[in-house]
Fold these 2 entries.
Entry 1:
Amino acid sequence: MAKKPSADEVRARLDDVARSLEAAPGVRITDLDAASTPSFDDGRKTGEKLLGTIGERMSELQERLYAHGRSGGDRSVLLVLQGLDTAGKGGIARHVLGLVDPQGVALKAFGRPTPEELEHDFLWRIRKALPPAGRIGLFDRSHYEDILVPHAAGTADADELTARFAAIEQFERELVAGGTTVVKVALWVSRDEQYLRLRERLERPDKHWKYSPNDVDVRLARPAYEAAYDEVLARSSFDVAPWYVVPADRKWYARLATSALLLRALLDLDLDWPDPSYDVATELARLDATR
Amino acid sequence: MAKKPSADEVRARLDDVARSLEAAPGVRITDLDAASTPSFDDGRKTGEKLLGTIGERMSELQERLYAHGRSGGDRSVLLVLQGLDTAGKGGIARHVLGLVDPQGVALKAFGRPTPEELEHDFLWRIRKALPPAGRIGLFDRSHYEDILVPHAAGTADADELTARFAAIEQFERELVAGGTTVVKVALWVSRDEQYLRLRERLERPDKHWKYSPNDVDVRLARPAYEAAYDEVLARSSFDVAPWYVVPADRKWYARLATSALLLRALLDLDLDWPDPSYDVATELARLDATR
């Protein structure tokens, strides 16, 4: 059995993962290998065991974060998940966020905007869904849909896109300044793997509900979406909130890598248990008097 | 190894659990043994294993419920959890709801009403937090606080309480008619066990945040709360939404019994995977053309 790594070793390992996944300047998403497993070379079995270990540590730190939120702290973590259909966003929600206490989690999936949402600025519905202090939030799709969709469809002009990027940058800087750690993950699934996953949805009656005819329409427009992703990675990987591109053809890997990024964000908060807002000795005496 | 039980056997077993926990007419909560383990006599180790098995089954049925919600279905399940401080409501949220996909769960904890909430009818904030179709909702405290607190404090007169019970009955009947299965669980922790749990919160720095001086105030008023619970059980155990009283001195038991009640509710929905809203053969051909 391997020796338990020290806190410094864990930290160095997680930094290594982050470095290997951070979107490099000028990266083109189609140049990346969606089946690769950067920073984790020991295969699925080892990876799944490691996910369990990461989950336990995440769970402890999540409780500490929650305790802070309940004690007036302003910290929170927001995981922004983007990815083409079948990239595995739902699987991350289930198998990564599922590792921690559901009370400490705030999940939000963004679909096509409702008529009410369309009457507001595109960030309106996003702001409403931000995690409260003390929580880990997950956005399954996000404000980036408001760049990706019009970009891919060619329905927004360059000035509009520039204005949206500027609004997003300001928004995310504001979030970070307010105590929210923003972790942005683009899950990258290959064309071939996407085909297999869509086919499985059509072949298995228990997966039919996950399929929509729109999935093929979007698949046909895949090159336009890839270009839109390149643009997003190039223009919104801010110092305070960089993009990570996670290869997602291997589900175990995408879950492990995303959980490592999340654990790193939680460790960075560096939170102790909050001090009590009452006098412990006094309360012990009061309690004992009721025995 | 025991033979896997048939669906009928599982169902009969769950009915047995429900029968043993349903609040009997005229029950007095202080007559119940909070350390007992009705319907599960094989101890903690077996109980914890069984919780894992129940969790797997719950998880499957939760996904089916979610699929229905996504396909236009109107069914949902609402677990209403009540209990004195330290009864273990948070533990149920974590260890029971934590067994299923967090995407399919809607948790809401109700604290002291905010000024905005007080400007509305007491059911206003409750209605806003109802689980959407396809979800399992959990209320950690609920509209019953609006009976329990004024009853225990003696700040509501008989007419007011009667009006609230009537409003609650109408509300819950409306919920059930609209497709929501309502499972109401009162967790029952003894005076002695409550003392030990509060003491642990004061002794362990990692639990200080869970303690509030108000906990001792409420403990001092415990007889008044017990009488309020008796009143709630007597007057709001409706045929469509009965109360279950779950002995909670043994945490493993409270989690197991509550998960059994939840599994029974999910089985009762009797849902198949929803039919696709598209033609499968057509979509297979469209997809294959993109290969």
Note: Chain B touches chain A at residues 67, 70-71, 90, 93-94, 97-98, 101-103, 105, 107, 109, 140, 195, 198-199, 202, 205-206, 208-213, 216, 219-220, 273-276, 278, 280, 283-284, 286-287, 290-291 (CB under 8 Å).
Entry 2:
Amino acid sequence: MERVETAEALRQRITRWRQAGQRIALVPTMGNLHAGHLALVDRARGLAQRVVVSIFVNPTQFGPGEDFEVYPRTPEADCAALAERGADLVFLPPVAVMYPAGAPGAVRVEVSGPLTEGLCGASRPGHFSGVATVVTKLFNLVQPDVAIFGQKDYQQLAILRTMVRELAMPIRIVGVETQREADGLALSSRNQYLDPPQRALAPTIHAILSDTAEKLIAGERDYPALEARAGMRLTDAGFAVEYVRIVRADDLKAPEGGEKRLVVAVAAKVGSTRLIDNIEVNISE
Amino acid sequence: MERVETAEALRQRITRWRQAGQRIALVPTMGNLHAGHLALVDRARGLAQRVVVSIFVNPTQFGPGEDFEVYPRTPEADCAALAERGADLVFLPPVAVMYPAGAPGAVRVEVSGPLTEGLCGASRPGHFSGVATVVTKLFNLVQPDVAIFGQKDYQQLAILRTMVRELAMPIRIVGVETQREADGLALSSRNQYLDPPQRALAPTIHAILSDTAEKLIAGERDYPALEARAGMRLTDAGFAVEYVRIVRADDLKAPEGGEKRLVVAVAAKVGSTRLIDNIEVNISE
């Protein structure tokens, strides 16, 4: 596995692969890789001859007071895991490669509208614009045929699909199911911020999401009541709930009736650690 | 010369050329082609094996009260001229191809900072964001190695160079010198809005720009005085002056002394027709 840090070194490898007619898959990450990321790499290997993984903790997607400075950085362990998993190249750009005019720079990819206004967009202004911008740069640097993202960041995935469609990027976006601990907790680099009692509490999110999903499948349709009930149960359990929302899977808008695919999404804090999770619900009635 | 309107038809041709190892040049236009555009096509032919010209009157770069509705559209004459000039493909997308979610859509490429704040940016809010967005889409659709733009739109060219650099687009941007009528008037589709007396007056812009350039070359450095004098002469001649500015060629900021490359840029109305022009000044002292 090669390890490159500059745009020039990256382009050189990419060009060689392209000229050989090989398909390229990109897995963009912020590093500190866990089994969730490695599942993305596995999927990537099934979709292309070459797998590029980027590791970049993107400053422009963190807000003031968020955890940019302390976000866990473990490049050596990450590269070891990626080599073992069969990635072909890991791209670890310094900030100056991703933001040649300094971060945030003068050019931004801005996504607006209902997709970005609700859920995490409401409490993290600028977050998705930061994500869209850095992903655009990674796409332009790597020129992948396909890019793989986790469904845990459901809103991010929907926004990136929209970005690719509206900007006519020649790239296929693939979402991969959330990987979980045995007790249901969604894998996340931020889980390591949790102390043992918080860690013991955290799987409650998934439990309540699953319960809400079951109620939807059983035919309950009073979405505000379901959201309120789930929110109250999380609050009672000790979470500071940011949102519990039931939205349409395709555009993240409030359901109007008759939808076949819904998503229940949660953001809640345990202590000072913000966790998100979601569950897709397919309704056949 | 082929004529295509859909992204699919375009991609098919592009893929074929790419697979044959041919370099592709793109000349983005709004149609109503004149000798200025054809000079871009000539330059494109010298830079790549395949020349794609796009014709798209982009709604998102026109402001309220601007001339989007009446902007001259002459696709048949344009295609004839392009075929004669040796273009390989002309791409004439309908609005729904460029804006699949409707214009302006939810995704925008936003350029901010000093490059966009002055000159035309001051009076045309959203214009350069509209340009950057549509050019990004065209780049993603055509995937050119090189793209050619006229220097008459000097600020646009500087902004697109910045966009390509900051977003790491794998595309070279080439600027081509402004083409002029024998009397000095810069070629522009908007010149046809001029009635005969206005047309007779219009070359005064270039005359005053040239005069200002000569004064700079002769050593005058009181930029505000030079700007004011040129502005007054234009006003006296019958123009409604929007700006006359002397700026640095590289970043369009006010000169601070010692600059080697300056640009004198003008926007002024003759009747209701807004004309722009500029002149580069290389100072060797």
Note: The mean pLDDT of chain A is 97.
